[in-house]
Amino acid sequence: MPSSYYVQEVFTPSTQARLNFVDRTSVNSQLMDAIYTAGKQLIVYGESGCGKSTLLMNKLHDTYSSYITTRCSKAMTYEQLLLDAFDQLDPFYTQGRGSRSSKGISPTVQAAFIKVSASISKAESEQQSRALPLQLTPQRLAEFLGAQSMCWVVEDFHKMPPEQKVPFAQSLKIFSDASTEYPGVMVVAIGATDTAREVVEYDPEMGNRVSELYVPPMTSEELTRIIENGQDLLNINLSAVAEGIVEYSLGVPSVCHQLALNACVEKGVMSTQKVRLAFTWRDLDPAVDRYVKDSSDTIKAKLFRALGRRVLGKYDNCRIILAAVASGPLPGMIFDEILTKIRSDHRDYPEKNLRRYLRELTKDERGQLLKPGGDGKWRFTGAIYHTLVQAMLSKPRQAAPNPSPQQYVEQAVARSWADTVYSSPTLGNTVFSDTTGTYTLDMKSYFQPGFTLYGTTAVTVSSNSLEPEKPALYQAPARRTREPK
Ligand SMILES: Nc1ncnc2c1ncn2[C@@H]1O[C@H](COP(=O)(O)OP(=O)(O)O)[C@@H](O)[C@H]1O
Ligand SMILES: [Mg+2]
């Protein structure tokens, strides 16, 4: 009998994929090289959500018998970083957990660990804040990790205050040197940045002992694999919705997982099906609806921050720029294209304004709706924002008689947001306050109830001409949760 899985194990929008992990072939060999080269330390970078943590977790799981992870924050100090690692090593030394039994570990290392441990507990019992005991040097930590053949993953290292990063950067050399005695010991620093240098500014002479691994956004093929693996694991057929989901994910795997998960949940697929169940295009509607509703607080905050400005100068810069970028394709536009687009409406729009406000719009205080891609293009931080800003600010486009899968999802997103704005008492409010300020925006003035992105002639759900041109697939009657409209 084939195995049965829960849908939450298969589609994992907010946790690291394990069962449905898709290999990242473009980065695999560099990663494996870093893991297997003694003394190599690793810096992993790439935009948030592209799959850095998941990749590391899966590969370390395959190659290390155990590893520890420390998560950094803005307030973290270097001392806290070392202490956190030490704390996590404790069960391996005191309870014999982990790869080798404590017997395999040299008594000197064992004794050293106990000694450090005792000095920490003493500090705690004296009600002092946890100061770093003198004995807990990076050398010691490297030794404690090395003796257990363990790897130390430092997540979100880019968030650490710059002055706290310096000693860590210096200690990379120490970890590298420890490899002569303990070949397995490795530190991995992960950061959501565009360059490795923004994660760790390490000593240039460490150049050949540090591997910088860039994890790119997922390709459409990789995203498609997530869907295909998922449908095999759950014994369902997602081919009717796959393309729309993949295109709308824009390289971000969590969106792909989320839309697929929503589609399953809305169709009542909670685990592997006994009889293969086929999805239709229509199943995207409730999936998208749930996606939009679940994100409505975030969407609201971002739109208000970006568009609800109080002081207006000659130009309403953010609005002008967002409208221009939203009029372009989902993957974004380069600077010159945006400028040309803006100048077709505002002939004298200054280039320096565009430069300045593009940057502004990447900041949290302005809703962080835009981001620059590695390809020089400026795009929205998620397709959902592209669609909504397009619906609000750009002239509606005329859709082809047969919408593409992407247009179908765009339409569903816009319609769902219009419904949400009208049905929620708080979303209709024109004033919004949060920690960054007070903003005014009348969301309703942009959307009529039942709003359609492409005008009335185009995408209407009842039209039969919109049936997918795919062969009719068997759909178990017992499993059908919604009548086709
Ligand atoms: N290789 C992969 N295969 C399948 N799903 C993945 C893969 N990489 C990431 N994901 C999914 O994408 C989302 C974000 O991944 P994550 O590793 O947290 O990104 P990052 O650490 O770069 O911010 C998670 O929902 C995860 O399940
Ligand atoms: Mg991560």
Account of the protein in words:
The chain is an alpha/beta fold. It has three domains: 23-214, P-loop containing nucleotide triphosphate hydrolases (Rossmann fold, 3-Layer(aba) Sandwich); 220-291; 295-445, no CATH class. Helix content is 45%, strand content 10%. It contains 18 helices and twelve strands. The two termini are 36 Å apart. Residues 52-53 line the site of magnesium ion. Magnesium ion is lined by residues 52-53.
CATH class of the largest domain: Alpha Beta
Q: What ligand species are in this complex?
A: adenosine-5'-diphosphate, magnesium ion
- Beta strand %: 5-15%
Q: Tell me, briefly, the overall form.
A: globular
Query: For the report, how would you describe the main beta sheet?
Result: 5 strands, parallel
| Helix and strand run | HHEHEHHHEHEHEHEHHEHHHEHHEEHHEE
Structural category is: alpha/beta
The CATH superfamily name of the largest domain is: P-loop containing nucleotide triphosphate hydrolases
Please tell me the CATH architecture of the largest domain by its name: 3-Layer(aba) Sandwich
Poorly predicted segments: 456-485
Rg, Cα atoms, Å: 26 Å
Q: Please work out how many helical segments DSSP would assign.
A: 18
